[in-house]
Design a protein that fits this description.
This protein is an alpha+beta fold. It has helices at 26-41, 58-71, 119-130, 225-235, 243-257, 378-388, 454-472, and strands spanning 4-10, 48-52, 77-83, 86-90, 98-102, 117-118, 135-141, 197-201, 211-216, 219-224, 264-267, 285-291, 294-297, 310-314, 328-335, 340-347, 356-361, 369-372, 394-397, 405-410, 432-436, 447-448, 487-490, 496-498, 512-514. The chain is 19% helix and 25% strand. The strands form 6 sheets. Strands 2-1-3-7-8-11 form a 6-stranded mixed sheet, sandwiched between helices. α1 (26-41) runs parallel beside α4 (225-235) and α4 crosses α5 (243-257). The two termini are 41 Å apart. The relative contact order is 0.10.
Length: 515
């Protein structure tokens, strides 16, 4: 049986960059990936190397990558995950404009040395690895594009502006690795496409990767958007699940939350996830401990837990809950990044660590779109609160961190400065309502405050968005319906092509068909 290896890197702290570039969810990502690999895919804890913050120097990352290349046996399973900043820098190859990079904790910008690890270095390492195994999985929850004009309400993004200095100024030696043919790159713009590995990245090369915040009773749980929703999909993986299966679920969830972010997958997508076949046939999370009526579940926000939800507990080893009596019913009381507290509501048998927890009823609050009105002037805020508060699809929040959308009333201005609210709206001739999503982008068209019935119009738009988001988040992991559903698109030459999943983009007037 092949051995399983993992290198998990998370960098929140960048001591050689301005404080504004510090992140908050990258170490959480690495820890979350470890819990998934150990609990769901049976990786040995001793075969997983973690590099967090100060440990994740250029020298340390490269040394551990090289160790993997030397130590693995034929057809071993290898997983490498990086969460942190991505960037670009002047290429060593004179025929290329920029090298895409990942940023170790000790890399810097002017006047400090650039210690980024380039796509060429990663590709050279992959070439060595592919000589021994084709069971390689890489995830990069970062991005390599520059900046875009957006509102400050947007979640943090995982990119640092390009380093345009010369190689000499960056204190970089000309790379000895073979230059990459850019025509061989996938849409992420990161690594050359190959059948020897699968690469999952946070977004296209012209987009930004966001951090994602989930609020639970005042506590904020932060992860990368790709990592959060990918691990949620991995928890629900069944025997035979492929990378394509879990990634399409994750991509849809990310794109629902951040419409301007489209995660990418490249390489051998129809291979079984992590090359592992011994996946349990039901989606469950282990019970970690019980003390009286207080229980702890070994999973957190990214595992799909929400305060107020009801979960049932079944004996260890349960593979199908039909016809099996639950040992207990739990109500989730608080959710963390990797652990969740619950209260035992009913009990019919002994509970022990390792028992299998399965959701039986979701929390109603998780389907509400959270709207922040704190940026609206007091007189208008009262008016909108009264109108929006009647909605059964919305929840009014008092802090930006907990919200999905933020509402502004923009005062007239001749021009927009970068630090102004909603700078992308430009000049404003009269007071205008704007609604911003967590990417910092407009969530709907602008409406002037004097417009007749404007509050009702904004409410209708918000509720339409809520229904749309809830439809996209529908999940039926135990479906027994024997139905195959396909989407077809016209390719422009009067031909119909299968368009299931993937990064398809449609515009008004395009023809699609459902089968």
């Amino acid at each position: 049986m092949p051995a399983k290896h993992a290198l998990l890197i998370g960098v929140d702290k960048y001591g050689n960059l301005d404080k504004k570039y510090e992140l908050a969810g990258c170490v959480n990502d690495a820890r979350l990936m470890k819990s998934i690999l150990v609990d769901q895919f049976h990786f040995d804890d001793k075969a997983i190397t973690e590099l967090h913050n100060e440990q994740a120097t250029r020298e340390n990352i490269l040394a551990n990558l090289n160790r993997l290349a030397s130590d693995i046996a034929q057809d071993d399973i290898v997983v490498v995950h990086f969460s942190g900043h991505g960037s670009r820098r002047t290429a060593a190859d004179p025929d290329a404009q920029r090298d895409c990079t990942i940023m170790p904790t000790d890399s810097g910008r002017h006047p400090l040395p650039n210690l980024d690890i380039t796509d060429q270095e990663i590709n050279e390492w992959l070439g060595r690895m592919a000589q021994r195994t084709s069971y390689i999985t890489l995830t990069f929850d970062c991005c390599h594009s520059g900046t875009m004009t957006r509102d400050a309400f947007g979640e943090k993004t995982r990119s640092v502006p390009d380093d345009t200095r010369s190689l000499e100024e960056m204190q970089v030696q000309s790379a000895p690795t073979r230059a990459i043919d850019r025509q061989d790159l996938g849409p992420s713009g990161w690594l050359a496409i190959s059948e020897s590995y699968v690469v999952m990245s946070g977004c296209r090369d012209d987009q930004l990767s966001h951090e994602f915040t989930q609020e639970d009773k005042g506590a904020h749980i932060r992860n990368g958007a790709l990592t959060h929703f990918l691990t949620t999909a991995l928890v629900g993986a069944k025997p035979g699940s492929t990378y394509r299966d879990v990634f399409e679920q994750a991509r849809q969830a990310v794109n629902t939350k951040f419409p301007s972010q489209s995660p990418q997958i490249e390489g051998r997508q129809d291979r079984e996830v992590f090359g592992v076949r011994d996946i349990e046939p039901i989606r469950f999370i282990p019970l970690k401990s019980v003390d009286g009526d207080d229980a702890v579940i070994a999973g957190g926000a990214a595992h799909g837990l929400h305060s107020g939800a009801t979960w049932k507990v079944y004996p260890p080893g349960t593979k199908d809950t039909e016809g099996v009596k639950a040992l207990a019913t739990l109500e989730i009381t608080s959710v963390g990044a990797l652990e969740t507290k619950a209260r035992v509501k009913t009990r019919s048998g002994d509970l022990e660590p390792g028992a299998r927890c399965v959701e039986s009823a979701p929390a109603a609050g998780q389907f509400l779109v959270k709207v922040d009105l704190s940026a609206v002037p007091a007189d208008q805020q009262s008016r909108l609160s009264e109108r929006f508060g009647q909605s059964r699809l919305l929840s009014l929040e008092t802090t930006a961190a907990a919200a999905d959308l933020r509402v502004y009333v923009l005062e007239p201005r001749g021009e927009a400065k970068p630090d102004d609210p909603v700078p992308q709206a430009g000049a404003i001739s009269e007071a205008t309502i704007a609604v911003i999503d967590r990417a910092g982008l407009l969530a709907m068209p602008l409406h002037v405050l004097s417009e007749e019935g404007v509050a009702d119009t904004i409410l209708e738009n918000l509720e339409t968005r809520a229904r749309y988001a809830n439809a996209l988040q529908l999940d039926n992991p135990a479906s027994r319906l024997d139905v195959e559903f396909n989407i077809h698109a016209e390719d422009g030459d009067d031909n119909w092509v299968l368009a299931n999943g993937g990064d398809y983009q449609y515009t008004a007037g395009d023809r699609i068909a459902f089968e």
